[in-house]
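Summary of Year 1 activities. Much of the first year was spent building the evaluation harness for sequence design. The harness presents a backbone, in tokenized form, and records the residue chosen at every position. We chose the following record to illustrate the format because it has been used consistently in internal testing since the harness was completed.
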């Protein structure tokens, strides 16, 4: 009997490798987690063809601008698969989507997810959704729906990938960005929780292929196993950034993701100005040094790929720095003054790192 043949000899979806009953079981398991993310504007629950959000809530805005973003978590999913840990990768997904949205000053409203698997393991899928739901709570948004797709033959039974899309809203006259930045503004850095969700292709190549390290290997410099370090969830800054906009005159945010610190900060700096960030104001975590030494990766290459210990940056007026740092400290966010905004002059790029990292 062929793989795509049922017991009666005819072809069937299940015999082709798609288990609808397992998918239904996964939905039942994830419902309790999705419910925890609900906002008053959300109508209905799981099971519909579309998630519903009551847009009349936006009437309080004079001119509401909707902000939208979509992302995944890259090859970090391979670490989760190999470790058999599925309830943290969702934090990463929410962070990658909603922290892009908050950069313009937008309040996260809702999110949808897409989980693609080779074979539906209901508890595993529910674990992924649990992490997404927990992340949505941390970002202040609702998880209004999603899709779990089973792709036998294209993905192995234990393979999976995740992606998500989110929507936020900001008042037009509160939109943050390059046009607000002025000479003399100060760059405030917010510490990352580790590698976050970028650069894992380089990290995996260096640590596994070149250095021959193992996920269950304890690394003294890290104070835990390599796998535990690599699965550390991405810090979600959404509510911290929104709190900052309420207490200070924030001019811009920059989410430090793929491309590194300088390239992402340059995206919010106007052409006639320059952002200078002093490396000596912080010490990158041990994981960054480990990747650099294990792969003999040059510093500039590391900085183009990894966040080097900074996950989000805020550009604020000089007179607002003390309030900004106090606000973040009250919320448990490690932050410090890392740089300044000056005239562009002869600088070839919109942002650059200077000096050496503190030891």
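For this record, the design step produced the sequence shown next.
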């Amino acid at each position: 009997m062929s793989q795509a043949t049922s017991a009666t000899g005819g072809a069937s979806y299940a015999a082709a490798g798609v288990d609808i009953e397992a998918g239904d079981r996964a939905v039942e398991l994830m419902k309790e987690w999705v419910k925890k993310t609900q906002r008053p504007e959300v109508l209905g629950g799981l099971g519909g063809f579309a998630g519903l959000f009551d847009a009349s809530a936006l009437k309080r805005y004079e001119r509401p601008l909707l902000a939208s973003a979509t992302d995944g978590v890259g090859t970090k999913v391979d670490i989760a698969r190999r470790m058999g840990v599925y309830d943290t990768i969702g934090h990463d997904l929410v962070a990658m989507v909603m922290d892009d949205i908050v950069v313009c000053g937008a309040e996260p409203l809702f999110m949808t997810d897409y989980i693609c698997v080779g074979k539906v393991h209901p508890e595993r899928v529910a674990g992924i959704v649990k992490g997404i739901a927990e992340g949505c709570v941390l970002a202040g948004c609702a998880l209004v729906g999603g899709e779990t797709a089973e792709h036998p033959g294209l993905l192995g039974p234990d393979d999976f990938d995740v992606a998500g899309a989110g929507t936020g809203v900001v008042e037009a006259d509160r939109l943050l960005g390059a046009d607000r930045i002025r000479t003399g503004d100060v760059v405030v850095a917010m510490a990352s929780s580790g590698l976050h969700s970028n650069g894992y292709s380089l990290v995996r190549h260096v640590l596994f292929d070149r250095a021959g390290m193992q996920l269950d290997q304890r690394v003294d410099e890290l104070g835990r196993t390599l796998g535990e370090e690599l699965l550390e969830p991405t810090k979600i800054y959404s509510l911290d950034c929104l709190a900052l906009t309420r207490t200070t005159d924030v001019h811009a945010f920059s989410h430090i993701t793929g491309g590194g610190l300088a390239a992402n900060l340059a995206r919010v700096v106007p052409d006639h100005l320059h952002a200078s960030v002093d490396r000596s104001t912080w010490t990158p975590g041990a994981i960054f040094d480990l990747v650099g030494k294990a792969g003999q990766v040059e510093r500039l290459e590391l900085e183009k790929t990894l966040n080097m210990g900074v996950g989000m940056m805020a550009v604020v007026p000089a007179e607002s720095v003390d309030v900004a740092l106090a606000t973040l400290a009250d919320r448990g966010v490690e932050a410090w003054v890392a740089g300044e905004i000056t005239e562009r002059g002869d600088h070839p790029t919109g942002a650059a790192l200077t000096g050496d990292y503190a030891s």
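Residues 122-139 form the longest helix (18 residues). Quantitative recovery figures across the full test set are reported in Table 2.
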